[in-house]
């Protein structure tokens, strides 16, 4: 059974391909007392008998696994999200090894917040849009000439470090209250979708349409990295609404003069 004496992060498998790897990841999770598995758009559908066969009696993890269509939905209730990747990215984010992630993440959960760790699919790992949703990046120190890990191996390494950090118990909980808690990812996604719609309406991307995906990714990464609080996101909603309302209320020159 999962070990509820240790903080429980969400282990989020994004677009996994093989059921066997999902099952092996479930086994790795339960080996170290973790039980919150979330699966985003698995290639071979869900439930998956190959996953159950490979889980080797870690059925409770699979039975309680939650299925999501998008990464944004899977992380919507989380305050802190880490992304595992072996590749360098152009986005400026804190980069840390699994041990540092585990020490920080356990403090965050003990302080009353929710944490998740993103793992990408077997073929290419997480894409840039998924990494942009995280506040920090986990990089596992491996052979530079052969650094790609199997999905379940990556889950096992992070789960092992998480359990060690949890059992250590030396770190004080991160402070958490309504004014200091980062906004949950779902609130950030709603704001960023609203901001994107307004930028499209205003013609912000008109002259640089070919660069729109990269710019949107960088904008999203910027806001996620800022660790905005709930009240700050609500203020930004109001600011953008105000600017949008002002723009809509301005009469175009050709309309003037009757």
Provide the descriptors you would attach to this structure in a database record.
45% helix, disordered C terminus, Alpha/beta knot, alpha/beta, 258 residues
Describe, in plain words, how this protein is organized in 3D.
This protein is of the alpha/beta class and about 260 residues long. The protein folds into two domains: about 160 residues, SPOUT methyltransferase, trefoil knot domain (Alpha/beta knot), CATH 3.40.1280.10; about 70 residues. The chain is built from ten helices and seven strands. It has a seven-stranded parallel β-sheet. Strand 1, helix 1 and strand 2 form a beta-alpha-beta unit. Helix 5 crosses helix 7.
Global Rg: 21 Å
Number of strands: 7
Distance between the termini: 76 Å
Determine the fraction of residues in helical runs and give it as a percent range.
40-55%
Total domains: 2
Largest sheet: 7 strands, parallel
- The CATH class label of the largest domain is Alpha Beta
Oligomer: single chain
Helix/strand/pairing class, anyone?
Answer: alpha/beta
Return the CATH architecture of the largest domain: 3-Layer(aba) Sandwich
Uncertain ranges: 250-258
């Amino acid at each position: 059974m999962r070990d509820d004496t240790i903080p429980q992060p969400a282990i989020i498998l994004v677009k996994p391909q093989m059921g066997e790897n999902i099952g092996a990841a479930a086994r790795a999770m339960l080996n170290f007392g973790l039980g919150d598995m979330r699966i985003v758009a698995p290639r071979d559908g869900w439930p998956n008998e190959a996953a159950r066969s490979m889980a080797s009696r870690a059925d409770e993890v699979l039975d309680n696994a939650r299925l999501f269509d998008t990464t944004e939905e899977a992380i919507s209730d989380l305050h802190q999200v880490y992304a595992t990747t072996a590749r360098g990215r152009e986005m400026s984010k804190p980069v840390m090894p699994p041990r540092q992630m585990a020490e920080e993440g356990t403090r965050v959960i003990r302080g009353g917040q929710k944490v998740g760790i993103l793992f990408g699919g077997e073929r290419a790992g997480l894409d840039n849009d998924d990494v942009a949703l995280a506040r920090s990046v986990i990089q596992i120190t491996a052979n530079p000439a052969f650094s790609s890990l199997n999905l379940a191996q990556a889950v096992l390494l992070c789960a092992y470090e998480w359990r060690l950090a949890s059992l250590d118990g030396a770190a004080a909980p991160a402070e958490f209250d309504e004014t200091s808690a980062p906004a949950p990812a779902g609130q950030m996604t709603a704001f960023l979708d609203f901001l994107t719609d307004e930028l499209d309406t205003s013609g912000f991307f008109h002259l640089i349409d070919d660069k729109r995906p990269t710019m949107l990714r960088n904008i999203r990464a910027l806001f996620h990295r800022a660790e905005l609080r709930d009240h700050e996101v609500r203020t930004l909603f109001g600011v953008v609404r105000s600017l949008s309302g002002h723009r809509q209320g301005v009469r175009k020159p050709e309309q003037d003069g009757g």
